[in-house]
């Protein structure tokens, strides 16, 4: 079988076509035709010694494997394309987030600079106003602190109003204290009244119990005396 295979290989066919019996092949097309005829399925089956069913089964298996690997390669390419698209989307999202972060940082920096400038301008204006006020005070000390000046009059009026407010507050506190003391005295009086009433009720109950005890005690003594004398009858209690 191996001898047949070697004789039907493409190189052997070409050698036989070129050298056997002095036969010469004129064209390359004729050599190709001889090769195709030699390697036809019928020749292969004859050289391998297999029947048609085995060869067709192997051909169908090879076809299924080819289709499977083709589909697998297609799936791999699709997956690779999806991964590439997802990677590109992630890169775009990261770039967008980076741009947004840079914008927020720039906005925050701008607001910080504005706040610092506003605060600095306010401090400068306050310092200028203070300098002007001190300059005016130094330039007019006698007029500012004289008893007839308007500033002194305003200060005296403010002090008078403050004094009146303090007196009014003191009166209000005193009235509240009196009101609280009055309510406390009233509550204590009511408590004493309730205590006296409860004491009277308790004394009445105690007196009533004592009277009942005194009323029962002679009868018991009389009953004991009768039992001592041997009397059978017992007194009838009212």
Topology record:
Blueprint: H1 2-7, H2 10-19, H3 28-38, H4 41-48, H5 52-139, H6 141-145, H7 150-229
Helix pairs in contact: 2-3
**What is the number of helical segments per DSSP (H or I, 4+ residues)?**
7
* Mean pLDDT metric: 69
Q: In what range is the share of β-strand residues? A: under 5%
Indicate how many domains the architecture comprises. Answer: 3
> Could you name the ranges where pLDDT drops below 50 across 5 or more consecutive residues?
1-8, 20-29, 231-238
- Which structural class best describes the helix and strand composition? mainly alpha
Biased composition (Polar residues): 1-11
Region (Disordered): 1-25, 180-214
Biased composition (Basic residues): 189-207
Coiled coil: 62-119
Protein model, in words:
This protein has 238 residues and is mainly α. The protein has 3 domains: 1-49, no CATH class; 51-139; 159-229. Helix content is 87%, strand content 0%. It contains 7 helices and no strands. The protein has helices spanning 2-7, 10-19, 28-38, 41-48, 52-139, 141-145, 150-229. The longest helix is centred in the middle third of the chain and has 88 residues, at 52-139. The chain is flat and about 140 Å long. The model is unreliable at 1-8, 20-29 and 231-238 (pLDDT under 50).
